[in-house]
Automatic annotation (TrEMBL):
Domain TNase-like stretches: 130-221
Higher taxonomy: Archaea, Nitrososphaerota, Nitrososphaeria, Nitrososphaerales, Nitrososphaeraceae
Pfam families cross-referenced by the UniProt entry: SNase (PF00565)
Protein name listed in UniProt: Thermonuclease family protein
SUPFAM superfamilies: Staphylococcal nuclease (SSF50199)
Protein backbone atom coordinates (compact mmCIF):
# COMPACT_ATOMS: atom_id res chain seq x y z
CA UNK A 1 0.00 0.00 0.00
CA UNK A 2 1.50 3.39 -0.94
CA UNK A 3 1.75 5.93 1.86
CA UNK A 4 1.58 9.72 1.17
CA UNK A 5 4.77 11.67 1.80
CA UNK A 6 5.06 13.45 5.14
CA UNK A 7 5.33 16.80 3.36
CA UNK A 8 2.12 16.36 1.37
CA UNK A 9 -0.19 19.39 1.60
CA UNK A 10 -3.51 18.79 3.37
CA UNK A 11 -6.29 21.34 2.83
CA UNK A 12 -8.45 20.10 5.69
CA UNK A 13 -8.79 21.00 9.36
CA UNK A 14 -11.60 18.54 10.20
CA UNK A 15 -9.18 15.91 11.50
CA UNK A 16 -6.17 16.35 13.80
CA UNK A 17 -3.69 13.80 15.13
CA UNK A 18 -3.17 15.03 18.69
CA UNK A 19 -0.80 12.49 20.15
CA UNK A 20 1.38 9.51 19.23
CA UNK A 21 2.68 7.28 22.02
CA UNK A 22 4.51 3.95 22.12
CA UNK A 23 4.16 2.08 25.41
CA UNK A 24 6.20 -1.13 25.94
CA UNK A 25 4.88 -4.16 27.76
CA UNK A 26 6.75 -4.40 31.05
CA UNK A 27 8.22 -0.92 30.64
CA UNK A 28 11.20 -1.90 28.48
CA UNK A 29 11.87 -0.95 24.85
CA UNK A 30 13.47 -4.25 23.86
CA UNK A 31 13.41 -6.38 20.72
CA UNK A 32 10.86 -9.17 21.00
CA UNK A 33 8.73 -7.28 23.53
CA UNK A 34 5.21 -6.20 22.49
CA UNK A 35 4.62 -2.47 22.18
CA UNK A 36 1.31 -0.62 22.22
CA UNK A 37 1.11 2.15 19.60
CA UNK A 38 -1.44 4.65 20.90
CA UNK A 39 -2.94 7.37 18.70
CA UNK A 40 -5.20 10.21 19.82
CA UNK A 41 -7.36 11.79 17.05
CA UNK A 42 -9.90 14.60 16.96
CA UNK A 43 -12.46 14.59 14.13
CA UNK A 44 -15.43 16.78 13.24
CA UNK A 45 -16.31 14.80 10.09
CA UNK A 46 -19.66 13.08 9.73
CA UNK A 47 -18.12 10.45 7.43
CA UNK A 48 -15.81 7.66 8.51
CA UNK A 49 -12.03 8.05 8.47
CA UNK A 50 -9.18 5.59 8.00
CA UNK A 51 -6.18 5.89 10.30
CA UNK A 52 -2.97 4.09 9.32
CA UNK A 53 0.09 3.29 11.42
CA UNK A 54 3.34 2.51 9.61
CA UNK A 55 6.61 1.49 11.28
CA UNK A 56 9.86 1.52 9.28
CA UNK A 57 13.21 0.17 10.43
CA UNK A 58 16.51 2.04 10.13
CA UNK A 59 17.03 0.62 6.63
CA UNK A 60 13.73 2.05 5.41
CA UNK A 61 11.84 -1.25 5.26
CA UNK A 62 8.27 -1.42 6.55
CA UNK A 63 8.28 -3.49 9.73
CA UNK A 64 4.60 -3.02 10.55
CA UNK A 65 1.51 -1.65 8.82
CA UNK A 66 -1.88 -1.51 10.50
CA UNK A 67 -5.10 0.42 9.90
CA UNK A 68 -8.70 0.75 11.01
CA UNK A 69 -11.74 2.51 9.57
CA UNK A 70 -13.70 4.35 12.26
CA UNK A 71 -16.59 6.79 12.47
CA UNK A 72 -16.85 9.30 15.31
CA UNK A 73 -16.90 13.00 16.16
CA UNK A 74 -14.90 14.53 18.97
CA UNK A 75 -11.74 13.05 20.43
CA UNK A 76 -10.88 9.35 20.63
CA UNK A 77 -7.84 7.20 21.35
CA UNK A 78 -6.89 4.07 19.41
CA UNK A 79 -4.36 1.34 20.08
CA UNK A 80 -2.51 -1.12 17.84
CA UNK A 81 -0.02 -3.82 18.95
CA UNK A 82 3.45 -4.13 17.42
CA UNK A 83 6.45 -6.29 18.32
CA UNK A 84 9.88 -5.25 16.97
CA UNK A 85 12.05 -8.27 16.17
CA UNK A 86 15.44 -6.56 16.20
CA UNK A 87 17.18 -3.68 17.92
CA UNK A 88 17.72 -0.35 16.18
CA UNK A 89 15.97 2.92 15.40
CA UNK A 90 12.44 2.88 14.00
CA UNK A 91 10.30 5.67 12.61
CA UNK A 92 6.60 5.47 13.46
CA UNK A 93 4.18 7.39 11.27
CA UNK A 94 0.43 7.93 11.55
CA UNK A 95 -1.75 9.01 8.62
CA UNK A 96 -5.47 9.73 8.34
CA UNK A 97 -7.24 9.14 5.00
CA UNK A 98 -10.84 9.34 3.88
CA UNK A 99 -10.73 5.70 2.70
CA UNK A 100 -8.79 2.97 0.89
CA UNK A 101 -10.43 3.03 -2.53
CA UNK A 102 -9.64 6.67 -3.39
CA UNK A 103 -7.24 7.69 -0.61
CA UNK A 104 -7.11 11.38 0.22
CA UNK A 105 -5.13 12.66 3.24
CA UNK A 106 -7.34 14.34 5.86
CA UNK A 107 -4.61 15.40 8.28
CA UNK A 108 -0.92 16.14 8.39
CA UNK A 109 1.02 13.00 9.24
CA UNK A 110 2.46 12.56 12.72
CA UNK A 111 5.85 10.89 13.13
CA UNK A 112 8.37 10.04 15.81
CA UNK A 113 11.55 8.03 16.30
CA UNK A 114 11.88 5.06 18.66
CA UNK A 115 15.14 3.39 19.70
CA UNK A 116 14.70 -0.31 20.51
CA UNK A 117 17.47 -2.01 22.47
CA UNK A 118 18.62 -5.61 22.48
CA UNK A 119 17.15 -7.98 25.01
CA UNK A 120 20.11 -7.52 27.36
CA UNK A 121 19.48 -3.80 27.92
CA UNK A 122 19.19 -2.38 31.43
CA UNK A 123 15.63 -1.19 32.12
CA UNK A 124 15.20 2.48 32.96
CA UNK A 125 11.44 2.34 33.28
CA UNK A 126 10.20 1.77 36.82
CA UNK A 127 6.73 1.51 38.31
CA UNK A 128 3.48 0.92 36.49
CA UNK A 129 2.74 4.30 34.87
CA UNK A 130 3.37 5.19 31.22
CA UNK A 131 6.96 4.89 29.97
CA UNK A 132 7.74 5.70 26.36
CA UNK A 133 10.49 6.73 23.98
CA UNK A 134 9.93 9.58 21.55
CA UNK A 135 11.31 12.63 19.78
CA UNK A 136 11.97 15.90 21.59
CA UNK A 137 9.75 18.40 19.77
CA UNK A 138 10.10 21.53 21.91
CA UNK A 139 12.00 23.03 24.84
CA UNK A 140 9.54 25.18 26.81
CA UNK A 141 11.90 26.12 29.64
CA UNK A 142 14.39 24.44 31.93
CA UNK A 143 11.95 22.02 33.57
CA UNK A 144 9.34 21.56 30.83
CA UNK A 145 9.84 19.98 27.41
CA UNK A 146 7.68 18.31 24.79
CA UNK A 147 8.28 14.76 23.59
CA UNK A 148 6.12 13.64 20.65
CA UNK A 149 4.33 16.97 21.29
CA UNK A 150 3.33 15.81 24.79
CA UNK A 151 4.12 18.35 27.51
CA UNK A 152 6.45 16.85 30.12
CA UNK A 153 7.05 18.56 33.50
CA UNK A 154 10.20 17.20 35.11
CA UNK A 155 9.52 15.51 38.44
CA UNK A 156 11.02 16.92 41.64
CA UNK A 157 12.94 19.78 40.02
CA UNK A 158 12.22 23.49 39.66
CA UNK A 159 14.05 25.90 37.35
CA UNK A 160 13.68 29.71 37.22
CA UNK A 161 10.59 31.11 35.51
CA UNK A 162 10.75 33.53 32.58
CA UNK A 163 12.04 36.90 33.81
CA UNK A 164 13.84 35.39 36.80
CA UNK A 165 17.65 35.16 37.09
CA UNK A 166 18.94 31.90 35.63
CA UNK A 167 15.95 31.31 33.32
CA UNK A 168 17.94 31.46 30.08
CA UNK A 169 20.83 29.42 31.45
CA UNK A 170 18.52 26.63 32.65
CA UNK A 171 16.59 26.59 29.38
CA UNK A 172 19.81 26.50 27.35
CA UNK A 173 21.15 23.66 29.52
CA UNK A 174 18.04 21.55 28.88
CA UNK A 175 18.15 22.34 25.15
CA UNK A 176 21.80 21.25 24.98
CA UNK A 177 21.24 17.99 26.87
CA UNK A 178 17.98 17.09 25.09
CA UNK A 179 18.04 18.98 21.77
CA UNK A 180 14.94 19.20 19.59
CA UNK A 181 14.94 16.23 17.23
CA UNK A 182 16.79 13.92 19.62
CA UNK A 183 15.34 10.81 21.26
CA UNK A 184 14.19 10.91 24.89
CA UNK A 185 12.86 8.24 27.23
CA UNK A 186 9.99 9.46 29.43
CA UNK A 187 9.05 7.61 32.65
CA UNK A 188 5.86 9.00 34.20
CA UNK A 189 5.79 9.48 37.97
CA UNK A 190 3.45 6.85 39.44
CA UNK A 191 2.71 9.16 42.36
CA UNK A 192 1.71 12.14 40.21
CA UNK A 193 -0.34 10.62 37.38
CA UNK A 194 -2.86 13.44 37.69
CA UNK A 195 -0.18 15.63 36.11
CA UNK A 196 0.57 19.31 36.58
CA UNK A 197 -1.50 21.89 34.68
CA UNK A 198 -2.09 19.49 31.80
CA UNK A 199 1.51 18.26 31.73
CA UNK A 200 2.78 14.74 32.40
CA UNK A 201 5.12 14.64 35.42
CA UNK A 202 8.10 12.39 34.70
CA UNK A 203 11.79 11.58 34.63
CA UNK A 204 13.43 12.17 31.25
CA UNK A 205 16.49 10.37 29.92
CA UNK A 206 18.45 11.79 26.97
CA UNK A 207 21.21 9.46 25.89
CA UNK A 208 22.83 8.19 29.09
CA UNK A 209 21.86 11.27 31.12
CA UNK A 210 18.80 11.80 33.31
CA UNK A 211 17.70 15.40 32.79
CA UNK A 212 16.14 15.84 36.24
CA UNK A 213 19.34 14.91 38.08
CA UNK A 214 21.61 16.78 35.66
CA UNK A 215 19.72 20.04 36.23
CA UNK A 216 20.14 19.68 39.99
CA UNK A 217 23.79 18.67 39.72
CA UNK A 218 24.60 21.64 37.49
CA UNK A 219 22.92 24.12 39.82
CA UNK A 220 20.34 25.19 37.23
CA UNK A 221 17.46 23.78 39.32
CA UNK A 222 16.42 23.26 42.92
CA UNK A 223 14.56 20.25 44.27
CA UNK A 224 10.76 20.49 44.57
CA UNK A 225 10.79 18.98 48.06
CA UNK A 226 7.09 19.72 48.62
CA UNK A 227 6.36 16.79 46.27
CA UNK A 228 8.67 14.29 47.95
CA UNK A 229 5.77 12.63 49.79
CA UNK A 230 3.93 12.04 46.51
CA UNK A 231 6.63 11.22 43.99
CA UNK A 232 7.57 7.67 43.04
CA UNK A 233 11.14 8.88 42.55
CA UNK A 234 11.62 10.47 46.00
CA UNK A 235 13.56 7.45 47.29
CA UNK A 236 16.07 7.46 44.43
CA UNK A 237 19.65 8.57 45.25
CA UNK A 238 19.54 11.77 43.17
CA UNK A 239 16.33 12.89 44.92
CA UNK A 240 17.76 12.05 48.36
CA UNK A 241 20.92 14.00 47.61
CA UNK A 242 18.98 17.19 46.90
CA UNK A 243 16.43 17.17 49.70
CA UNK A 244 13.91 14.30 49.64
CA UNK A 245 14.14 12.34 52.90
Amino acid sequence: MPIPALAQTVDNDDVTINKLLVVPQGGQFEAGRQMSIQVDITSSRQDSILYIVQVKDQDGYTDYLGWEEVSFTGQRSFELPWTPQKEGRYIIQVFVWDGLSTPKPLSKASAGFLDVAGVSSVARCVGAAVCFSGTVTRITDGDTIRVNNIAIRLALVNTPERGEPGYKEATDFTAALCPVGSTALVDEDDGQQAGSYGRMVAKVFCGDKMLNAELLESGHAVASTNFCDESEFASEPWAHKYGCR
